[in-house]
Amino acid sequence: MKTILHKADSRGHANHGWLNSFHSFSFANYYDPNRMNFGALRVLNDDNVAAGRGFGKHPHSNMEIISIPLEGDLKHMDNMGNFTVIKEGDIQVMSAGTGVEHSEFNNNMDSVVKFLQIWIIPNKENVEPRHDQISLSDLKVKNKLYQILSPNPKDQGVWIHQNAWFHMGDFEKGQSESYSLKSEENGAYVFVLEGELNIEDTTLNARDGFGIWDTDSFELNATKNAKFLIMEVPMNF
């Protein structure tokens, strides 16, 4: 078993006034050769966007882009004709493939929107761009891991072009569960949203990240009430 701990205060940080962003991995002006990625997980940005502000139209290609609002509403527009609002409790995926242009704005004029922006390196290049968005309300289960993303279009949650699975947890203090990796070639990156979690005798607090690989399973224990995201991805791609 191998592990790596990324404490919240070790992340890259950029404050542009309208955007306050924390980077778990190298992004934009934040560069750390030891923090380029965790397997196929290339970007994990913890973004706070001021009221009415946002990212103007910009291009992407050959990347799987996942947006998970944590607070507030995020307006999405793209050149595929999609015009949607992603709310807290939703998840959106965009396969950029051969190329797509999109914009993202805070849909509210009186409050900040907070969301996770996640990029996964795909296992197929130059696919036809696609967009999908669902509510997680029907999937969410208290004190139990629930799947929100997979490689299978017929499976629970959204899907992407990669051998990856995302699960979320909302655990009360004292709750524990074992997570079994779907592939021996994969590792898992756990990102704590709120509270306190213990994995393999390592204590994780809000916004800490913990990578674990070369194992087939690991135990999660909520030492306080905890909300967290598990991102299982290939380590070699």
TrEMBL record:
Binds 1 Fe cation per subunit. GO terms for molecular function: metal ion binding. Fe cation binds at H58, H60, H102, E104. Residues 11-120 form the Pirin N-terminal domain. Its cofactor is Fe cation. Keywords: Iron, Metal-binding. Residues 148-233 form the Quercetin 2,3-dioxygenase C-terminal cupin domain. It holds the Pfam family Pirin. PANTHER family: QUERCETIN 2,3-DIOXYGENASE. Belongs to the pirin family. This is Pirin family protein. The lineage of its organism: Bacteria, Pseudomonadati, Bacteroidota, Flavobacteriia, Flavobacteriales.
